[in-house]
Amino acid sequence: MRVTPCQAALAGAIGLNLLLFYCAWRGPGGSPPPCRPPRGVPGVTVILRDFEDFENDLAGTARSFASLPVPVLVAAETAPYPPVPLPAGVGFFPLRPVAEHPPPLAHPELHVRTRHVALVPDGTRAVPGLLERMRDALEESAGTTRLVAAPVGSVPLRCLELRLEPREWTARYGPAAPGLCRALEGPAVLLLRTRDLFALPFPLTRPVPTALFIQATLRGWGLRVLPATFPAARRPPVSPHGRWKSENLAENRRRRLMRELGVKREVLADGRERWYGCGKETPRCFGTVHARTPQYLLAGRWTPPCCLRALRETARHVTETLEAAGVRYWLEGGSLLGAARLGDIIPWDYDVDLGIYREDVAKCRWLAAVAAGGEPVEDAEGFLWEKAAEGDFYRVHYSRSNRLHVDLWPFYPRGGVMTKDTWLGHPQDVEFPENFLRPRVPMVFAGFTAMAPNNARAFLELKFGPGAIENPEYPNPAVKRLGQD
């Protein structure tokens, strides 16, 4: 077939565009000549990330490290304001994409060409040769070591063990045994390979040290600390307003980071706890539950610890209220199962179930008010009592905002058998002899003592089948089984 000049020109234009597209997107390696300079050249790139827009030492820190033969980059969501006069040769890249700029400006890995990168805190001063010593220490380290740290200033670094429990949404810190340093307390320069840093899902999220330690621990990376120290700049005291702003920003950043990393509780080395999940003023941490299988179970996690804490608090409040009013109640279903197995809520459960005698409803002012008016009622402690939309039973929510709840199932005796008017098809949703409640007995549950059937094992095996206590299982094994974790 004869090709016309127009067809040849069109084919050439298409080929040129494809070539340009390939050059724009090709990665490192490949046959020469490359479309852009290859990454991974020897050396260390310094990244300045942890600084405040106000009362910072960014110019001094940048100037100090720019005096070394290393590239220096400043990373921030937007350019510092008030503007900071950066030394010549110090680059800046924004981490927040801007509509009118091309995408590569939002990808810091495109700006780093060296094999190693150092994350330097604000106010650090350079020491000739120390970055190279850190790099050599990293390359000479055996095993899983992927991070090298050197302290900044006179504050000694404290090595910590870091244990992550993703299924429980928890990070635990403690004193580190020799060779088990996973996190640090105190300012430090952190050095690692560039490819390792930018292989992390959150490479430059602040606070950078915490983000790196958690992500490194999840991957089994080791941390080595060098005894050599970087000097810290002499800086005027931070103003009270600046301290207040800094503390608030740090708290917000840490909360944002923990949300991104899936951590809802930190247990500190001194035993204190930090919580990042839901509370009375927020919605609960998970949405509507389908097929009795919360979304977090499908993601390989158990009930967030903040939710378990709220359920315990709600259960204690409800049982105390019922007892004070003379309402006969007992632990039901999965809650009784948790009490029998653990003395607590089952770690993957998302509500608490209590049975009550229907004839006692009028004894409790909150239940009576709901039954009479049909509208939710908030008690003096902020718990919300309401009639369930699904049928003839009641719910007590942790708060108006947070819908973690205790279900109250009204049973009544008929011919010696306890029955009720609403059946939802759960495996444990069956009638049972009233003899199990004559008498009711105390049982440890969720940090307090609740009332329970007098033969918990027989009661549970009637509802769940033989071996229910010894053979834990998720609420709907057809959707998700415990062994799949």
Quick description:
By secondary structure, the chain is α/β, with parallel strands linked by helices.
Please, could you describe this protein's structure?
The chain has 485 residues and is of the alpha/beta class. Helix content is 27%, strand content 22%. The protein is elongated and about 90 Å long. The N and C termini lie far apart (62 Å).
Helix-residue proportion: 25-40%
Q: From the structure provided, what is the oligomeric state, counting identical versus distinct chains? A: single chain
Note poorly predicted spans.
Answer: 16-39
- Specify the structural class: alpha/beta
Strand content: 15-25%
What would the principal axes of the Cα set say about the shape?
A: elongated
Main beta sheet = 8 strands, mixed
User: What's the end-to-end separation, in Å?
Assistant: 62 Å
Question: Topology of this structure?
Answer:
Layout: H1 5-25, E1 41-48, H2 58-66, E2 72-76, E3 91-94, E4 114-120, H3 130-140, E5 145-151, E6 158-165, E7 170-175, E8 183-185, E9 188-193, H4 194-197, H5 208-218, E10 222-225, H6 240-261, E11 265-267, E12 273-275, H7 295-298, H8 305-325, E13 329-331, H9 333-342, E14 352-357, H10 365-373, E15 377-378, E16 384-387, E17 394-397, E18 405-414, E19 417-419, E20 432-433, E21 441-445, E22 448-452, H11 456-464
Parallel strand pairs: 1-2, 1-4, 2-3, 5-10, 7-11, 14-18
Antiparallel strand pairs: 4-9, 5-9, 6-7, 6-8, 11-12, 13-14, 15-16, 16-17, 17-18, 18-19, 19-20, 21-22
Helix pairs in contact: 9-11
Which properties best describe this structure?
8-stranded mixed β-sheet, 22% strand, single chain, alpha/beta, 485 residues, 22 strands, 7-stranded mixed β-sheet
